[in-house]
Amino acid sequence: MRSLKPLLYALLLVWGSPAMAASSLPTGAWESYRASFLDASGRIVDTGNHGISHSEGQGYGLLLAVMADDPANFDRIWSFTRTQLLVRDDGLAAWRWTPGSEPPVTDLNDASDGDILIALGLARGGAKWQRSDLTEAAATLAGSIGARLLFTHDGQTLLRPGVSGFDRGERADGPVVNLSYWVFEAFGELAALAPGHDWSGAEAGGRHLLASVLTDAALPPEWLSLAQRPKPAAGFPAEFGYNALRLPLYLLRAGEGDPDLLRKLTAGMSDANGNLRIVDLSTGATKETLSDPGYRIIPAAVACVLDGTPVPQDLRGFKPTLYYPSTLHLLALDALNERHPECLR
């Protein structure tokens, strides 16, 4: 029965996923993104972080190539990912690759968001282009994620940020999690790829944990200690940071969920002009203000989906800036094009 699994999964995804449209990105957007961030070797270059590449970026690149219906460049990204990052002995991806270093993998630990994004990109590519090789690779990676990265804490299934360094016993304040590593849209597909793991529990655990943190605080910390009452983890800035600002986008891409939670998140992370804030949670002070369109579209998308507020005209198109906000911009535009096209009219 194992040999039927890729075909059955692909059929289910073709029938049930909005990712099967020819292209869900604005005309020319993927070409501009590619020219700015995809090099000849197939690596996505993080232009805001010293030109490194990482598992997160490779996963985003795979997903965007599927959205753009570009199998040739998908294969370039997958080739780099497979040969340069999938070098661990547990089936997960090393998270950081640094040009000019020898060896170029400068941190062999994995990052669970990158692992999930790669698996999701492979799964959707396999389904869209009817390629069992991609679906099999996605299933193998999903199995490794389920076996190595899901864990139980206080009766809930949660997600480790990485295999090493975050558990109770490894840290005095462990376990430590990062809520922005929950790519909520992926869990249903991971369950189809690798049944036998508690994917629905992991998704529910992440949503419950986020809601419980926001009961007592305006914003969640980037790194969260669960040793006792949830609080910012030791050794990390007590801040709502660059990773965490993805949370409303991930929730939106997975379905609106709890509107009050989305409104609270976007209200806390935005200023009066719609810019995003990096926030010192110990004082509530704004550490940085982020005005890039790729950041501003996140609260704008939430406001349109929940309340019908039109997305500002300058956010509806795409022009590359830096890797991270540009990626978030395309993910937001894809979500709106697929589920809420009225927001872009």
Question: How does this structure look, described?
Answer:
The protein is globular. Residues 14-19 have low confidence and may be disordered. Helix content is 46%, strand content 10%. It is mainly alpha-helical and 345 residues long. The protein is built from 12 helices and 11 strands. The protein has helices at residues 5-16, 29-37, 55-67, 71-85, 112-128, 132-149, 187-193, 199-216, 247-253, 259-269, 293-307, 323-339; strands spanning 53-54, 96-97, 105-107, 150-153, 156-159, 176-177, 224-225, 231-232, 239-240, 276-280, 285-290. α1 (5-16) packs across α6 and α5 (112-128) packs antiparallel against α6 (132-149). The protein has a 3-stranded antiparallel beta sheet. Strands 6-7-8 form a 3-stranded antiparallel beta sheet, with no helix packed on it. The N and C termini lie far apart (47 Å).
Percent helix, as a range, is: 40-55%
Number of strands: 11
In terms of DSSP E residues, the strand content is: 5-15%
Main-sheet strand order equals 1-2-3
Compact overview of the structure:
With 345 residues, the chain is mainly alpha-helical. It is 46% helix and 10% strand.
Question: How would you describe this structure in keywords?
Answer:
single chain; 345 residues; mainly alpha; 3-stranded antiparallel beta sheet; 12 helices
